[in-house]
Amino acid sequence: MADVLEPGQLNTYFSLMEAVSLLQHAVTQQLRAEGDLSYVQFELLARLSHSDGPLTMTELADGVVYSRSGLTHQAGLLEKAGLVTRGPSAEDQRATVVAVTEAGRELVAKVLPGHVEVVRRLLVAPLSTSDLDALGGIMARVRDHMRAEPPRSVATRRSSARNEHL
Amino acid sequence: MADVLEPGQLNTYFSLMEAVSLLQHAVTQQLRAEGDLSYVQFELLARLSHSDGPLTMTELADGVVYSRSGLTHQAGLLEKAGLVTRGPSAEDQRATVVAVTEAGRELVAKVLPGHVEVVRRLLVAPLSTSDLDALGGIMARVRDHMRAEPPRSVATRRSSARNEHL
DNA sequence: CCACAATGATTCGACTTCGAAGCATCTAGA
DNA sequence: TCTAGATGCTTCGAAGTCGAATCATTGTGG
């Protein structure tokens, strides 16, 4: 293990960060324009739409934001917009369960095609099928590795399960 | 929209976004802990340290932030911290040229090893050399494609290019 | 039953980022 | 020269994120 990275490895890191930054900016613009949603809001709605039932705030936060307060804020906005509902949990009075409303599902369905189109145009289009397969495998491995790595005192009070899809 | 993305392509996109989000969060923590710098501030200092001479605000902003006002704010903070200097340009009275100070160079030198170490541990470690090479090539291609792609309603008023709409 | 810690969520303040509007300067054309 | 538009940067307000502190509930030990 070398102490210093090869120059090419650093360049890989920079390319990765800049490309994703550009992609993130593009999809953020699209979501704001077509659905008046932030990227996080879209992620939350998509997660709720895809889940079987309502989720608690903690389950919903996992993997989307790095602070609970941020989720509280966004969930409040989504509730005010009529896209989700919040209510007390039956089992645990401390917990708040969040459910997507019909309007929320419709909004996701409305903005999803445009979202996918942006991804297709910016990420999929310039790559070959084998490139995409390779990228998918590589990033899944990196992601899993990071999830497992010691959180290093990240303030997220980790909960039990980890969601896989979406 | 008959040809939506393959499920695997969408998963590639999600893996990419989540992995980079985790990586970004990790390096941000490291920079804040070891140098009291934000990621953008570090990028600006690194860019200035690496350049031959001072840069104008516009040159400095290119590729780092998506708004000029954000750069103005950060440059002000860096100047207040004594890490950069700002002064009028000789050729163009409108322009502000930014130069890194010795303290700025020293701070970059101080935090860079830890920064590289985080990247090595989270991104490089779980991948093989060939994976890294492939990733570098793929992301460089994606990045270049996005840079060329048009509809960046980004406020980057480029020197020679001219945007038609919006 | 009663402290007391752990857990789920919210409130609050500080910081960052962006977009629109504004000011100053440069440039091109009549 | 004079005027209008383009360009460089800053100011200002709105929105988002995070961390620390806080409130409420659950669980545990005496």
From TrEMBL, chains A, B:
It comes from Amycolatopsis albidoflavus. Residues 9-144 form the HTH marR-type domain. Pfam families: MarR_2 (PF12802). This is MarR family winged helix-turn-helix transcriptional regulator. Residues 146-166 are annotated as: Disordered. InterPro entries: HTH_MarR-typ (IPR000835), MarR/SlyA-like (IPR039422), WH-like_DNA-bd_sf (IPR036388), WH_DNA-bd_sf (IPR036390). It comes from the Bacteria.
